Amino acid sequence: MEKRKAKKMLERAENHFYRGEYEEAMRTYGLLLRDYPSLKEARIGAILSDVAGENDEEAQALFEYYQVLREENGEDAERIIEEMIGSLDDALTKISDLLEGTLLGSDEPMNGISYHDFVELVELRGSFRRAFEDIMFSTRVVITEKEELLDFLQQLVENGFNEMAMRYIEGAAVAYPGEEKIQDLIEKIKG
C-alpha cells in the first residue's frame, strides 16, 4: 500500500513538473521526501523544480533526460544528473556574475553599458565591428537575457571575433545545453 501511495504522489509531482507548475511539484516532492527520505526520484525532482524557478528550459531538458536515464541506467541516473546540475550551477554562477555586472571574485561593480544601449551604438556607428572596437577595452556590454546573449554571440562570430565568442560560448553551452543556436555558432567557428 505504501509503495503505491509513493508511486502515485511521484506521478503527480512529475505531472506538475511537466506542466510547468514548479511550486506545486516542489511541494509534492517535499511531501514525498518527508515520508520517504531515501526516494532518489523525489530528491532529483525537488532539485530540478528549484532549478526550474530560474531556468525553465534547462530544467525541463534535464528532467526529460533524467527520465530516459532512469529507464536505461537506473542506478547511475541520479549521479549523472547531479553532476550535470553541478556543472549547470557553476556555469550559471559565472554567467550571473557577468550579467549582474560584477567582476569575478570581486565586489567591485563593473563599468558597462546595457545590451540595448550597445545596439543603439551599433546603429549610430553603422556596424557591429566598429561599435564593439570602440568600447571593447574601455567598458563591457551587460547582457541580462538569453536572447541578448545569443544575439551578441552571433554578432561576434559574424564579425570575426571568434576567439572572444568561444570564451562566451563555453559558459553558455553549459548553461543552455542543447541550444541549437550555440551549436550552430560552434560549427560556424570551426568551419
Key phrases:
elongated, 74% helix, 191 residues, two-stranded parallel sheet, 2 domains, mainly alpha
Please explain how this structure is put together:
The structure is a single chain. By secondary structure, the protein is mainly alpha-helical. The chain folds into 2 domains: 2-86, no CATH class; 111-190. Helix content is 74%, strand content 3%. It contains 10 helices and 2 strands. It has helices at residues 2-18, 22-35, 40-52, 56-72, 77-99, 115-125, 128-135, 146-158, 162-175, 180-190; strands at residues 112-114, 140-142. A two-stranded parallel sheet has the order 1-2. Helix 4 packs antiparallel against helix 5 (77-99), helix 6 (115-125) crosses helix 7 (128-135) and helix 9 (162-175) runs antiparallel to helix 10 (180-190). The longest helix is centred in the middle third of the chain and has 23 residues, at 77-99. It is elongated. The termini are far apart. Mean pLDDT is 79; it is low at 101-110.
What is the fold's blueprint, element by element?
Blueprint: H1 2-18, H2 22-35, H3 40-52, H4 56-72, H5 77-99, E1 112-114, H6 115-125, H7 128-135, E2 140-142, H8 146-158, H9 162-175, H10 180-190
Helix pairs in contact: 1-2, 1-3, 2-3, 3-4, 3-5, 4-5, 5-9, 6-7, 8-9, 8-10, 9-10
Which term fits the overall shape?
A: elongated
- Taking pLDDT < 50 over at least 5 consecutive residues as the criterion, the unreliable ranges are 101-110
| Helix content range | over 70%
Provide mean pLDDT, rounded.
Answer: 79
Query: Termini separation (Å)?
Result: 59 Å
Helix and strand run: HHHHHEHHEHHH
